[in-house]
């Protein structure tokens, strides 16, 4: 591998603002902000959503009460006029 052409691979602190949780992952993301956490300085990046705050992962997912378009069609028309042959 050529030297000096690859981005730095280091531990980055990703901060989920919705859940106020930190995720420490090794990454090559380029950021300008740093944060001191437990005496160690990490590159710092904010996230809007992660597995800590996304409704699918937290179990607080809302289900839609509306049927899909196919279900609405079948509910409205059903099997009217359809004759199946054996």
UniProtKB/TrEMBL annotation:
Q: Which UniProt keywords apply?
A: Ribonucleoprotein, Ribosomal protein
Q: Which GO terms describe its cellular component?
A: ribonucleoprotein complex; ribosome
UniProt-listed GO biological process terms: translation
Q: Which Gene3D superfamilies match?
A: Ribosomal protein L31
User: What's one GO MF term for it?
Assistant: structural constituent of ribosome
Identify its protein family: Belongs to the bacterial ribosomal protein bL31 family. Type B subfamily.
Assembly behavior: Part of the 50S ribosomal subunit.
This chain belongs to the protein called Large ribosomal subunit protein bL31B
Which species does this protein come from?
Endozoicomonas elysicola
């Amino acid at each position: 591998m050529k030297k000096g052409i690859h981005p730095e691979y280091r531990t980055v602190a990703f901060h989920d603002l919705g859940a106020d949780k930190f995720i420490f992952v090794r990454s090559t993301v380029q950021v300008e902000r740093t944060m001191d956490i437990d005496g160690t300085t990490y590159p710092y990046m904010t996230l809007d959503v992660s597995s800590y705050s996304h409704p699918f992962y937290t179990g607080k997912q809302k289900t839609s009460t509306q049927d899909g378009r196919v279900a609405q069609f079948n509910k409205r028309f059903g099997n009217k006029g359809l004759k199946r042959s054996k």
